[in-house]
Protein: AP-1 complex subunit gamma
Amino acid sequence: MSPSVRLQEMIRVIRGARTQGEERGVIQRECAAIRAQFRQADNGTRSHNLAKLLYVHMLGYPAHFGQMECVRLIASPRYNEKRVGYLGAMMLLDEKQDASLLITNSIKNDLSHSSQYVQSLALCTLACMGSAEMCRDLAPEIDRLLRASNSYIKKKAALCAVHIVRKVPELGELFTPAARSLLSEKNHGVLHGAVVLITELCERNPDTLEQFRKAVPELVQMMKGLVMSGYSPEHNVAGISDPFLQVRILRLLRILGRNNDTASDAMNDLLAQVATNTDSSKTAGSAVLYETVLTVMDIKSESGLRVLAVNILGRFLLNNDRNIRYISMTSLQKIVQTDHNAVQRHRGTIVDCLKDQDASVKRRALELSLALVSAVNIRSLMKELLLFLSSCPPELRAHTTSGIFNAAERYAPSQRWHIDTILHVLTTAGGDVRDETVPNLIQLITTATELHCYTVHKLYRALITDISVQSLVQVACWCIGEYGDLLLRGECEETEPVQVTEDDVLDALETVLQSHMSSPATRGFALTATMKLSTRITHNVDRIRSIVSIYGSCIDVELQQRAVEYNALFKKYDHMRAAVLERMPVIDKSSPGHTNGESTTIKELEPTKLTQEIVLSQEPSNQVCDLLDLLGGSGEPLQPSPSLSSTAPGPASSTAGGDLLDLLGGLDVTPAPPSVTVYEKNGVTLKLQTDRQTDTGMTVTLTATNSTDGDITGLTLQAAVPKSVQLQMKAPSGDVIPAHGLGQVTQTVLLNNPNKVSLKIRVRVCYTSQGSVCQDMVQIDSFPSPAW
Structure:
């Protein structure tokens, strides 16, 4: 290929290359020829060579050696060379390179050029790659061009001013007067640039926002003109008059009307007019309506207008375009807490979206359906969710089961319905439920005393039908062990009675113990259930003894230990076996140590701890009784004496009783360690509490609360510390933070700092709020005492 080949010929040869190696060889030869010609003094082919080099850059090959050539062409008086030079600068230069500073003076000169096209080139380049230093130097020139008479220049100057404000926010005050005057322009391009500039100014400066709130009536009239104007071929897009400008104006009105009654009242009629007069059959109309809905929901609008906005989103759900359906459900997810009844009207359409083929639409429909569950519609909506669970993709099953469990726990019409629903979920998708499901269901069953017979019959039938679902098998084994006598009795009013013999029950449990599908935890449940049946049956105790003895030499250590202990009950402690294996008491859900991972309110433990501390009598005259109290011989616990916690010794400290108390190290009750707030955003508050255990060991407790109207789901906390510090994160108490601060989620972190280095912790917080996934990073440098 000749070094002087034209651009079109070079493109043809590169496209004709059969292999990547051949293409690379062509480009290397051409780049070598371009380098050689750049060194020559002849300027006739510089723009031609730079254009070829830009094409090479677009293909992903290095073209940095053309940067200085861009600077030379920008300084050229010829328009065709200046155009290619500016194009090269936008593609090859950025604000991090020193070469970009060399074109500042050329841009300043071209901004004052007599030709509007040269001025346009300089404005586009500055808006594309202008650094903060360039913006500060050229901001007065841009302000001057904003007041020019040429609409073509004002349009580009407005967009260039937007870039300057983003780079140097303090320069926004310079453009405020000019931006306000641009709103009186008739040219749509200038208006579009002005609205974008004003939006940027208002988002970055509250004082500017107050100034432009006075322009709301003018913006409303401008928007009305666009909505009611007749056909204009210059601005018409699918029957909508300049939808790009309409969307920008609505976005600006949303910012101006937020948290302001006067501005919101001024635009209510306009928003109703746009919502009723805009055709949603085309994408352009849908875009305008969607922006209208966002504006209605963000300002202080009337209730009727909000219902109209929800109805528009409901119409979007019927649109054939999946993107429109997706954004509709995303918006409904955000407003379902505030306008629950309005969204409920579209429940049928939302549930139908669960059958959509698109995975993203299906996920949004699931989240919205779960948010719509209430005490009124729990039965009907749960049927739809259970039907969806049977056919939903694997990646959604865990989320679906978690949502169903939450809804059933909150709105269950009866305990029997609650148990049936959870058992249905376990049967359908038992392998996708979370670990805390088994203890939660066991707790529910223990509290439903009148349903013990019904539950054990139903679980026994499920057990003999399928033993592959581990969570279901574990609950079934537990229930058979606890309520096996009710199963053998065969009398159950709630369900059809089934005659079950002792051998049938033991055969079922033995099948679980011997199955290769059973996990070690499941075998532990089955072995314990078998042992408990030894006190509930009469004729097969010897068989149970032989089953238990077999596992005394099991390879699984946990199972072996259980079997050895159960054998000891049979042999040495047989007289205690009935008492040890009696029914479990009702499990208190709010008891310390029991968390369900969902929306349980964690009780404050500090008062309980205080009553368990060693307490002292307030009567100093009877030190013997005080000592008896210390040894636990007294009845009621008494409050600690204030004199014991005083730093100055009192008169009683000289007595024998006081000396004995001093020997015990001062038994004053220490207050709970202080906590600090390390994260507060989107209604989620994360507090940190430290407790020094040893000289090098410390326990850090992270507590998350939620002040929003909706539950925060999917909470995960990840922590990182310096290499010399050892970190161990315990399992969190759950991943759902109840709304309105009704509960909290805690996670304990154990730290060992043998070198006693300065401690820093970086915590990553991830959660889902109103359908949106939030992720933040928190750096913790200071800790409440005690710490290192």
